[in-house]
Amino acid sequence: MKKLLLVMSIILALGCAVELTTEGSSVRLVDDKSSCEFLGTVTGYNSMGNDMAHDAEGAMNDLRNNAAQMGANAVKIIDVETVPEATTTIGEALYCTFD
């Protein structure tokens, strides 16, 4: 029984989405980048979530976390690819002037 609980705990731990960091939570998603400086291309990835939506959420969190590490305060999504095993997001890391 203890072995079963240990295995289940490991499986649940592996099924977690990437958590959004404090820095990542300050990165906005934008459509209009006219008042923004392009900092670079950024990606996010998550696999082994509970379902495809969980993977997509984790990949978006990873994208925002990575953009924050580049000094970005915004991201424009370029592409999202979701397959049953994982989700990958690609975006433009931006530093924008907001009103």
CATH superfamily: Hypothetical protein apc22750. Chain B
For the record, the CATH class is Alpha Beta
Q: Mean of the pLDDT scores?
A: 87
Structural class: alpha+beta
Low-confidence stretches: 4-14
State Rg.
16 Å
Number of domains: 1
**What percent of residues adopt helix (DSSP H or I)?**
25-40%
CATH topology: Translation Initiation Factor IF3
Tally of contiguous helical segments: 3
The CATH architecture comes to 2-Layer Sandwich
Strand and helix map with partners:
Blueprint: H1 2-14, H2 22-25, E1 28-29, E2 36-47, H3 52-69, E3 74-83, E4 86-96
Parallel strand pairs: 1-3
Antiparallel strand pairs: 2-4, 3-4
Structure in words:
This protein has 99 residues and is an alpha+beta fold. It has one domain: Hypothetical protein apc22750. Chain B (Translation Initiation Factor IF3, 2-Layer Sandwich), CATH 3.30.110.70. 35% of the residues lie in helices and 35% in strands. It contains three helices and four strands; from the N terminus they run ααββαββ. It has helices at residues 2-14, 22-25, 52-69; strands at residues 28-29, 36-47, 74-83, 86-96. The chain has a four-stranded mixed sheet. Strand 3 (74-83) and strand 4 (86-96) form a beta hairpin. The longest helix is centred in the middle third of the chain and has 18 residues, at 52-69. Mean pLDDT is 87; it is low at 4-14.
